[in-house]
Specification:
Blueprint (H helix, E strand, L loop, with lengths): L22 E7 L7 H12 L3 E7 L5 H11 L3 E4 L4 H7 L2 E2 L1 H6 L4 E5 L2 E5 L2 H11 L8 E5 L3 H12 L4 E5 L3 H8 L6 E3 L10 E4 L32 E4 L5 E3 L16 E4 L8 H8 L3 E4 L1 H16 L5 H9 L22
Parallel strand pairs: 1-2, 1-3, 4-6, 7-8, 7-10, 8-9, 10-13, 13-14
Antiparallel strand pairs: 3-5, 5-6, 11-12
The structure holds NADP nicotinamide-adenine-dinucleotide phosphate (NAP).
Length: 343
Amino acid sequence: MSEFAEIPTGGRPTAAWPRATTAVAGVIGFPVRHSLSPLLHNTAYAAMGLDWSYTAFEVPPASLAQAVAGAAALGLRGLSVTMPHKDGAARLATRRSVQVRRLGAANTLTFDQGAIVAESYDGEGLLDDLRDGGFDPAGRRCGVIGAGGAARAAVLALAEAGAHEIVVVNRTVTAAWRAAALAPTVVRVGRPDDLRRADLVIQATPAAMAGGGAPRDTAIVGQSDQTGRTGPVPSTAPAGEGGEPEVSAVVSGVDPSWFGAGQLVVDLVYDPPLSPFLAEARRQGATVRNGLGMLVYQAARQIRLWTGAQPPLSAMWAAVADLPPAASEGATGPWTWKSTGQR
Ligand code: NAP
């Protein structure tokens, strides 16, 4: 008996697949093991009957240029790009969309006859999900907590969608100014308090992620006002019963208990599906939404771009529907904006 006879197949769908002709795409990030993108993309390609395969590549920051050049040389169709490679991907591209040029960041690379084409679908994915639930940002007061890549994509998308006003509140005020510069006529740097009257609040920091946001050992800005006045804002509460720090519901000085009926609160984090920030806002009567819809829609846009065909949204939603616990009800999946309620 051959020494190879007992080697398991490793759960490959069939021995004959992928084939030499299978189109390959993937996601690059560091880390990337947590990514839901392979599940979303492979579900879509199977439902579409396409001979496409999508996988995750963990690429350390120092290897980004080699990885992108290698992907192009190997004939990959495209790459989704996640943290921390979005800025680097934009720099490495040979063609950039208007959004990528304005944001200086890309979440999609397409390899097209020697060109590396960069797009940014984070903002449009967010708008798709908002509109799906019936919320149109046009004419609305919006607040964005955070000023990193995701926050800036949200700010630009909301401004382009006709928001009346966008207030950016961030721990570090200089980063907030950079975000506000994306659309100075409608965006301003504000104080946490300013978000009390917003119709829509986007929480765009990792502070609510399982395990809490990355702790900082440098001085942090609590009141992100025009003067740059600083004050500490804890990202995590003191240790809970299990000895682990509990993730605070307050992010960058914004207390979600301020919100209520008639307001929509979105946390771009989807793990946990109902962050302490969203849970508190929901307790107060606000409509809440996590970031899974944004992820699903930006993946759908990538699939449409790369294959030229309509993505199977219901199959994609079904693939991720089982992941969140029941506690996230309303924050994930089909939803309706509840615009009624006194403020
Ligand atoms: P990023 O570029 O690293 O920016 C992080 C931002 O969060 C910065 O403004 C930072 O403030 C702030 N921040 C970090 N830790 C904080 C804390 N403990 N307290 C208060 N503020 C804190 O990250 P990103 O790419 O924008 O991503 C932000 C979040 O959005 C992540 O959780 C990411 O997973 C999520 N995201 C979701 C989707 C989706 O499809 N749903 C897409 C993209 C991103 P400073 O400026 O002071 O450092």
